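Progress report, Aim 2. The chain analyzed during this reporting quarter is listed below.
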Amino acid sequence: MSGIEIAAGFLLIVASLVIILIVLIQESKEQGLTSAIGGGANDSFYGKNSGRTRDAKLSKFTKVAAIIFFVVTLVVNVLAAINK
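Predicted structure tokens for the chain:
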């Protein structure tokens, strides 16, 4: 294994962990009994808007991490095919 493949493998692990953590941090969009039990009734202006911006940022970070994961996976596979 070359140094590039090791670095790419490390990037894959980091990107996958980032995706997992960001998805776990995001709030659920489901409404109903679980939202009522968990305190989903936040009617203040600040609470509503800060949640949207936070969720929007987390969603954007998830997309960026997924793109990085996809690109690094393609690069690793291309390098492996070239080195065969």
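The mean pLDDT is 78. The radius of gyration is 19 Å. These observations will guide the mutagenesis work planned for the next reporting period.
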